[in-house]
Amino acid sequence: MLNESVVQQLKSIVGDAYFRIDQEALIAHSYDGTPMLQALPDGVIYPETTEQVSEIMRIASQYVIPVVTRGSGSNLCGGTTPVSGGIVMVMHRMNRIIEIDMENLTATVQPGVITGEFITHVEELGLFYPPDPSSMKISTIGGNIAECSGGLRGLKYGTTKDYVLGLTAVLPSGEVLKTGGKLTKDVAGYDLTKLLVGSEGTLAVVTEAILKLVPKPKTKKTMVAMYKDIYGAARTVSSIIKQQIIPATLEILDNATIQVVDDFAKIGLPRDMEAILIIEQDGEPEVVERDMASIYHICEQEQADRIEMAQTREQAEQLLTARRSAFTALARLRPTTILEDATVPRSKIADMVLKTNAIAKKYNVSIATFGHAGDGNLHPTATTDARDQEEVHRVEEAFAEIFEAAIALGGTITGEHGVGIVKAPYLEWKVGTAGIEIMKGIKAAFDPQNILNPNKMFAKETKKRVVIQHG
Amino acid sequence: MLNESVVQQLKSIVGDAYFRIDQEALIAHSYDGTPMLQALPDGVIYPETTEQVSEIMRIASQYVIPVVTRGSGSNLCGGTTPVSGGIVMVMHRMNRIIEIDMENLTATVQPGVITGEFITHVEELGLFYPPDPSSMKISTIGGNIAECSGGLRGLKYGTTKDYVLGLTAVLPSGEVLKTGGKLTKDVAGYDLTKLLVGSEGTLAVVTEAILKLVPKPKTKKTMVAMYKDIYGAARTVSSIIKQQIIPATLEILDNATIQVVDDFAKIGLPRDMEAILIIEQDGEPEVVERDMASIYHICEQEQADRIEMAQTREQAEQLLTARRSAFTALARLRPTTILEDATVPRSKIADMVLKTNAIAKKYNVSIATFGHAGDGNLHPTATTDARDQEEVHRVEEAFAEIFEAAIALGGTITGEHGVGIVKAPYLEWKVGTAGIEIMKGIKAAFDPQNILNPNKMFAKETKKRVVIQHG
C-alpha cells in the first residue's frame, strides 16, 4: 500500500490520469506472459518523459518502493510480474521514434516503441533492424533491451545487444545516465551499454536508445527440409555452418511441434517426419541463389526426405508465420504452456532434442521442441495444466533436468528469455557462486536499496542440482 | 618492495625462473607503448596456467599487492604501466590456441596468443577473425580483450567485443569465473563477458577466451581516392554509407599524414592532396565488384581528384601497410609521438579533422590526423619532444580541447585505445559523474581491495573542462 502523500506526489508528476491505483489497473498489471505467476502491484504509473521517470525514481528511492518497468509484458520469465508489490511503470506513452539518421545508420527511439512497427518503419526506409523475437508484434524495444531479445535471425545477425549503441537510463536514485552514442567504437570506461542490455530492469530504467541499423538485404529465399531422422536435420545444420554458409534463419521443429503447428496453421506440414528445418537466406541475389543451392545439396546429402523451396514470398511468409505460431499452437492443446529456452552450442542440437525427449518420457510429461537450430537456442515447450499440481511438479523437475543437460553440453539455462523469477533458482548452475556474487555486487552498485525489480534474477535459494546420468 | 616470504611463495607457484625481481626485468616492464610514462614494478611473474594465476591472485589479495596484467604492452593509454608498483603479470607463456571448432565456428585461446599469428592461423583454415589493431603483429589477444581493440575493419565487422563469446577469468580473490560459452545467445544474468572486454585489466585476469570466427571473405578489392578538399573525402564517406554500402575498410589520411607516410613508405602518395581515402571491400566476388564500382562512382561525384584501383593484391597490401605504418612514420619526425583516438559519429569526420587542425594551430603544435573514417575513429597524432615541457603542455592542452570537441560532436574521448592513465582525467567528460560512480561501484564489486591495475581509469582529479568556442 502506498501512503496518500506518495500517491499525491506521483500524481503530481504524471497527472491524475497516469497514476492508477484502481483494481482494474492493478489486476491488469499483476501478470505477464509467464504462466502460473501473479502478484498485485500497489500502483501503475505511465510516465511520458525521462524527467518524469527521474522524478518517479526519486520518490521511489526516498520511500524505498519497488519499481517494475514494463513494456508489453510479453516476457516469459516473470520479469515484469511485480512479485514484491510496489509500482509498475508502464512505458507505452514513451513510444516515439525520435530520429532515423541515414548518415550514421542509427535510430533513436523511446522504449515503448513496438518492435514490429519499428522494423516495418525502418524497412520502408530501405534499412533493417534484425532482432525479431516471436513476440515482436506486441513486444516493445524497451522490453527487448531489458531481456536482450533474440529471435529467428540471431545466427547471422546477432541479438538485441548487438544493435544497441547508446542508452539514456535513469538510475534508482533518479540520476540520468547516458552511455555510448552514435559510435561503433567507444571504450571510455566499462561498457555500461551492453551491461544494461539484458539486465532485466534490475539496474536502471531505459528511457531512450540509440540503435544500429544495417542495409536491408536485397532479397531472401526460403526452403523447408524434412527428415525422418532428427540426426539428419542436426547434421544438416552442422554441415551448412562447416561449409561456411551462415543462413539468416535456420529453424528446427520436432515431430510434436510439426503436428500441432499444422493443426493450427493448416499448411500441409509433413506429420510423419521426425524433424523439419526452415531455412532462409538473405542478401545479394547471386549470393542467396548460390547459398540456397549449396544448402539444398547439403540437405540431400544428409538424407532429407523432402526439400521444398518456397516459390513465392507469400509461401515463405506462411512458413515463417507457421513457425512463429508454434507457441500459440501449442498453447491450444492444454490450459498451461511453459515455453523454455535452453541453449546449447549448435553442434549439440540433436543431442539436446533427443535428451529432452528422453527426459519428457522419464517424467511422463508432454514436451515439444522447436527453435533456432542455427544458434543452438531451443524452445522445449511443455503443455500442462496449472491446476494439476502433481503434474506441474513433474514438468518442473523435467525442466530442471533439461537445464542441467544443456549446461552439461556446454550450453546455458536461457538463450533469450532472461532469468526473471522463473530461472533464478538455476542461475548459479550456469554462472557459479563467483558469478552470482559478482552480479549481486553489480546490482548493489546500481541499486543499493534494491528497489528496481527486486527479487528477480537472484533466488533466495538455488535449486539442488539434478544428478545427470551420463552416457 | 615485496617481502621475502611473498617472493618465495610466488616462486614456488611458477618456478624460480618465472618470477623475476632483477633490475633488467623490472625496467623492461616499467613502461609500455605510451610515451612519457614509466614506473618500476616490484616483480615480474610469468604464469603458465589458470591455476597459477589463481594462486598468484590469492597471494596478491592476502598481501594487498597491485597486479598489472600485461600482454605485449603495445597499448597507448598507459594501461600496463605499473604506476602503483606491485607485480606485472606477463601472459606470454599462456600462448596456446587450444581449439578451433569448425562446427561451432569458435576458437578457444589463451591470452598470450599474438593477434596477427592467430589471424593467419584461422585464415589458413578458411576462417576469419576480423579485429585487426594496427599493433596486431605484436599485440596479444588478451591485450586486445583488455582494451577492446578495434582496427581497420571495425566499420563492417565490429571490434573485439563482438568476437568474444566466453571467458575464463580469475578474480582478485583467486576465484575462477567462467562466462558465456560457444553460444551466440546467452542471457543468464548480467553480461559479464562484454563487461570484462574493455575493462583494461581492472576487474579480472582473463586466462582463456572463446572467440567467434566467421567465414573468410572470398575476395577483396582496394582503392585509393584523393581529394584536394577534405570535405569531398568526408562527403564520400557519408555517401557510401547512405547508399548502404558498408566497406570492410574506409581509412582517411590527412595531408600531414600523407607527407610523412610517403617519406617513410615511398609508394608515391600524392603530397598535394588535402586528404586521401583508402577503401577496401571484401566478400563474394560479384558483390565486391558491384560495391567497388558504386564507390568509384561516388568518389567521382564527390570531386575526387584521382581514384586508383589496386591492380594486384600486393599493391593493395602496400597501401594498407602504408596506412598501418602511419604511427611509425610519424614517430620518426620528432622524439615523442602522442597518438590519440578521439571518435565521432561518422557524419562528423570532416568537422572533426578541421577542428583538430584549428586547435593545433591555436596551440602551435604539430598534429597529423588519420584513422578509421568509416567508423568515425580518428587518430590525431602529435609529434613533440618530451624534454620540452612547455611544448608538451601545449600538446596536452590541445588534446584536451580535441576531446572536448569530439564529445561536443556526439563522440567520445577514446574509440579503441582505452582510458588507462592517459584518458582518466577526461573520463567524466564522457560518462558524467553518475557514470563514474557506477563504474567505481562495478570496480569495487570485482576488486574490493583495488589490487588489479590500480589507479587506472579513475583519476584522482577530473581535468577542468575547456570552454569551447562554438560557431
From TrEMBL, chains A, B:
Alphabetical UniProt keywords = FAD, Flavoprotein, Oxidoreductase
PROSITE patterns attached here? Answer: FAD_PCMH
Cite the SUPFAM superfamilies for this sequence: FAD-binding/transporter-associated domain-like (SSF56176), FAD-linked oxidases, C-terminal domain (SSF55103)
One Pfam match = FAD_binding_4
User: What's a single GO MF annotation on this record?
Assistant: oxidoreductase activity
What domain of life does the native source organism fall in? Bacteria
Where is the secretion signal located? none
Cofactor or coenzyme needed: FAD
Note the InterPro entries from the entry.
FAD-bd_oxidored_4_C, FAD-bd_PCMH, FAD-bd_PCMH-like_sf, FAD-bd_PCMH_sub2, FAD-linked_Oxase-like_C, FAD-linked_OxidoTrans_Type4, Oxid_FAD_bind_N, Vanillyl_alc_oxidase_C-sub2
What region holds the FAD-binding PCMH-type domain?
37-216
Q: Which family does it belong to?
A: Belongs to the FAD-binding oxidoreductase/transferase type 4 family.
Would you tell me the protein name for this molecule? Glycolate oxidase subunit GlcD
